[in-house]
Specification:
Blueprint: H1 16-44, H2 50-57, H3 61-67, H4 71-96, H5 99-117, H6 121-124, H7 134-155, H8 165-175, H9 186-198
Length: 204
């Protein structure tokens, strides 16, 4: 259970150690709230009661509202967090895996991102001005993350030349779109075929 932090915890009389604990509690609260919100949104949609999110996070409703006064604040924070996590994974895969395997691992991570974003779709396409900046942020973070992996794989002769991150991201998102005549395994199966295609005419 995450301890709820109240205003009294941040008084000027607190010692540096106490203020550090308050900041650590606040960071934990925020992280738990974002993870809980993503889970609840995925299962119940973005209109789920805030008390369900607070309960899942192990904090009080007051803590949720202190961090996110409006529901759109929470949805935006969840989306930004997911975009950042997906983008940051590129550096990890690039350091730990061979060039082609790094691209493949990241593309699988991207598919997961697309699938979890479905729970947010109702809000993201609602026309709310709070989300207008998300497409630009998506492009800013994800395009260079993937392009760096593609460039490294091309330099290693592991994939064909001239591949552009924006084209690949759009293509993968298209076969992750919901459809009634396919099962949940469809995106992964299509991605496997897609990755095989990247190696067609590769120098190696």
């Amino acid at each position: 259970m995450v301890r709820e932090t109240g205003p009294e915890d941040t008084t000027a009389e607190a010692t540096p150690a106490e203020r550090g604990r308050v900041r650590a509690d606040a960071r934990r609260n925020l992280d738990e709230l974002l993870k809980a919100a993503m889970k609840v949104f995925a299962s119940k949609g973005v209109d789920a009661p805030v008390r369900d999110i607070a309960k899942e996070a192990g904090v009080g409703v007051g803590t949720l509202y202190r961090h996110f006064p409006q529901r759109s604040d929470l949805v935006l924070a969840v989306c930004t967090r997911e975009i950042d996590a997906c983008a940051d994974a590129a550096a990890t895969f690039g350091d730990e895996l061979q060039p082609f395997e790094a691209v493949s691992a990241w593309m699988n991570r991207y598919v997961q991102f697309i699938m979890t974003k479905r729970g947010l779709a109702a809000a993201l396409y609602s026309g709310d001005p709070a989300y207008q900046g998300l497409p630009a942020y998506f492009e800013k973070r994800l395009h260079p993350a993937l392009q760096g992996l593609l460039d490294a794989a091309e330099a290693a002769g592991a994939i064909r030349s001239g591949l552009k991150a924006n084209e690949l991201l759009r293509a993968v998102a298209s076969f992750c779109a919901p459809a009634q005549d396919v099962g949940p395994e469809y995106p992964a199966r299509m991605l496997e075929l897609f990755m095989d295609g990247l190696r067609y005419r590769a120098p190696a």
